[in-house]
Amino acid sequence: MATTTLRPRSTSMGSSTRAGRRSHPIARWLKYGGPVRFLFILPTLLVFGLFAWWPIVRSLGISLQQTNFVTTRWVGLENFTRVFADPLLGTATVNTIWFAALALVIGFPVPLLLAVAVSEMRRARGIASVLAYMPVILPPVVATLLWKAFYDPSSTGLFNSIFGSVGMDPIPWLNNGDLAMPAIVVQATWASFGTATIIYLASLMSIGPELYEAAEVDGAGFFRRIWHITLPQLRSVILVLVLLQIIGTLQVFAEPFIMTGGGPENRTVTILMLIYRYAFISGDYGRATALSLLLAVALTLVSLIYLRLTKKWSSS
Amino acid sequence: MSLIRTAPEDVSAPIPGPIPEASARRMRRAEEGQGDRSVLSNLDRRDPVKRMLITVFITLVVMSLIVVCAGPMLWLFKAATSTTNETLGDPFSLWPSGLHLENFVNIWTQVEFGKYFLNTVWVMLGSLVLGVSVATTGGYWLAVLKPKGSGFVSALILATLFIPGVISLVSLYLTVIDLPLLGISLIDTFWAVWLPAAANAVNVLIVQRYFASLPGEIFEAARVDGAGPVRVFFSLVLPMSRPILGVVALLTLVGAYKEFLWPLLVLPSPDLQPISVVLPRLASTTEFAPFMAALFISSIVPIAVFLVFQRQFLQAAGNAGALKG
């Protein structure tokens, strides 16, 4: 929108503009409030420069350095070779992918189906949205610690009491290598499904009624309407949310960090937890940054492959 | 307690009664709300068998939502007001020895929970002021002033959205520990949380989009009348942008309240730590019942705020989706 520009226009400025046009561009910039206008972008430039752009650029350097605050020396690719030499890297990679896969299997259908159900509600829609969004409001730390209490391994833990009432033996949820990660995924999904539900619901409510009417006239039943109208209309939102979810879950940290600290037997150690340990337990910033860069490259590749694979569906 | 401000009748039982008055109201609403048409048509809803199926299904969905989403909060209240032994002995016992409000007193006096809560408030307020300032001034420059180079700056800001945040976690920490040019460390100051939080590309982009959609002729007219860029910003742009400022403020406050890893890294001194950083430590050092009280306080505050501003929250969440979509 060109009309919103506040840069002085010559027509309304009269003779002073003619004088200004002859002068040096910097003099003109100073004369027409350039410094005042620049003050508006200065906070953004400072904050993004120092805390967004510079750290990203600097990562490339740190990954090739060994630093301990006093001295810094260039070590080439040594940090990367040390990352690959860590026997935990494979474990952490498998765990992280396992977490992301489980989170997708549970976390994708739940909000979508729930949003479709909520969109069919009339009187209960408001209360259903509020309920679904409530866990999202809780800080992840609070939700995780609360669920850690639910997963208490004793027979009087909350979940064990519920399952015990139908005759099941107590299950050591977070202490069992096979169950710990799924248990964390269930908690993480509980804490986040509200966001996707509300976003799906907002798109569902914007689908034009004429589409459904046309399908109804053509004799399409409930499920065929969902399959042929609802889902295709949601596809761009679905595609973006699934990609964001994959990228987000591959960077999971707080939930396993608080619930299990990576145990039992490293079955819930994630890549981000390794980065945390390298940097803030061992003080090995170069190695941590090298692994960060590798993860970032992997995430970019995943996004590109995802966009490639879904290209056909998104453009059809 | 009324959960819905706009339509109080929604709080009543989700099952629509068969009384003619209720169904008349439902029909009226269906006719009014033209965009209210969803997969099911009004024709479907008039069919008695289908209507019963829909009612049963909706009741089941709402009831499971109550159990799954409100249930943990209700249980947390119970655990926060029972003794440790009562809850650990039987998690579903209902106050066998009455309400134990002393858990709240204990957590407040023994571990100075109030101090950590105040730290959280400081973290949130600072993030709010800085975040909104950066987003509005930056958005104004990018969308309204639009001098040469604004496209480039806009692209640089957008780029940070596509670069995974993990890439800069460690280098951001090293930057905060030793600020370039200034050479000072922000560790153990709230600035270490506030400033990086202000570099929020989503906020800048939301505000920028909104500012760009404002009628530019008004600003042009004000400028012709002699109003400078500062005057236009404070007297026109900001007052016209209240709805979007509310959205940005909510997103920033919730974000600051939920933050865990970053404040854990840059605020090692317990005197400055917000509750999200302190709670995991309390989990292992505090008795069970007072700890549940701490968890309850930490959840009831945001939930109460959410229930009061639910419309704004849900709109902000939906808007964020529109930006992503």
TrEMBL record, chain A:
Any Gene Ontology biological process: transmembrane transport
Protein's membrane topology: Multi-pass membrane protein
Domain ABC transmembrane type-1, chain residue ranges per copy: 93-306
Subcellular location(s) per record: Cell membrane
Residue numbers spanned by region Disordered: 1-20
Keywords, in A-Z order: Cell membrane, Membrane, Transmembrane, Transmembrane helix, Transport
TM segment ranges: 38-56, 97-118, 130-150, 179-202, 234-254, 288-307
InterPro entries: ABC_transporter_permease, MetI-like, MetI-like_sf
Skewed-composition ranges (Polar residues): 1-18
Cellular-component GO terms for this entry: plasma membrane
Key word Transmembrane helix present: yes
Top-rank taxon, per record: Bacteria
Entry keyword annotation includes Chaperone: no
Family designation: Belongs to the binding-protein-dependent transport system permease family.
Protein name (record): Sugar ABC transporter permease
Organism encoding this protein: Labedella endophytica
